Hints:
Blueprint: H1 4-34, H2 39-45, H3 61-73, E1 77-82, E2 89-95, E3 102-107, H4 114-117, H5 119-128, E4 131-136, H6 154-168, E5 173-179, H7 181-188, E6 198-204, H8 210-220, H9 225-240, H10 249-253, E7 260-265, H11 273-282, E8 287-292, H12 300-303, H13 305-320
Parallel strand pairs: 3-4, 3-5, 5-6, 6-7, 7-8
Antiparallel strand pairs: 1-2, 2-4
Amino acid sequence: xxxxxxxxxxxxxxxxxxxxxxxxxxxxxxxxxxxxxxxxxxxxxxxxxxxxxxxxxxxxxxxxxxxxxxxxxxxxxxxxxxxxxxxxxxxxxxxxxxxxxxxxxxxxxxxxxxxxxxxxxxxxxxxxxxxxxxxxxxxxxxxxxxxxxxxxxxxxxxxxxxxxxxxxxxxxxxxxxxxxxxxxxxxxxxxxxxxxxxxxxxxxxxxxxxxxxxxxxxxxxxxxxxxxxxxxxxxxxxxxxxxxxxxxxxxxxxxxxxxxxxxxxxxxxxxxxxxxxxxxxxxxxxxxxxxxxxxxxxxxxxxxxxxxxxxxxxxxxxxxxxx
Length: 323
């Protein structure tokens, strides 16, 4: 009988160790799946012609290929800058379409490419004489790094790019734009000390916060979000030094003074349409909302080019002037 406490204590210690080991495994796997973008993965994802696999995009993919090819063939200047935050090398493609002082700086989505996700914006800018900078976000494309931070560090990269363009082209007028994670990037940057040259922001199908989108996707894939998210947050802090809850698009827009256009397709099965509505409602500055009927995630331009283009150009013209 005297051995019972020892046995129980040993079992408890073993169970505690097993639980800790399981938590460490989940934390590592969640981090790798969610935030880590290895060099091999980047090389694969760098191809802008990779098609969206969902059946929603059956009619959209062929349109994408044509515009992407024209963007690949158009003359551009390769730009490389260094992140003022952590020294990561950042890459962009600068297209000068006219002598207009108006520039659109575009940021792509999660594990995407500027050429694919930004091809609609490229076409709109080319057809209307707006100069365009298509950025490879950190940990994607030709930019350095291997960790995607869901807008936490990307927002400072956005600031660096805005400072670069405003410094190189004095008197320019800048519209920041982005799709999905790119929208979260520019919206998160909206309350930073951006240069006065930044006149407006366009966020297309952006998510409200890292926590909300990560938990939403985890739940859909059958993982316990209440367990996974805290472990992921801890892993990000310990392994990469950033806090997933440090900033969110919905908090930033509630403090911004920069005019914002929110665009969202109402058949978005990745970032819920209601997130776009909530971002619009939270925005403290001058604002506008475009609902694109029947548009899946990141495809509003392809579904309704006319409405997308007219709304975006009118918005840019209102705050940046004629181009």
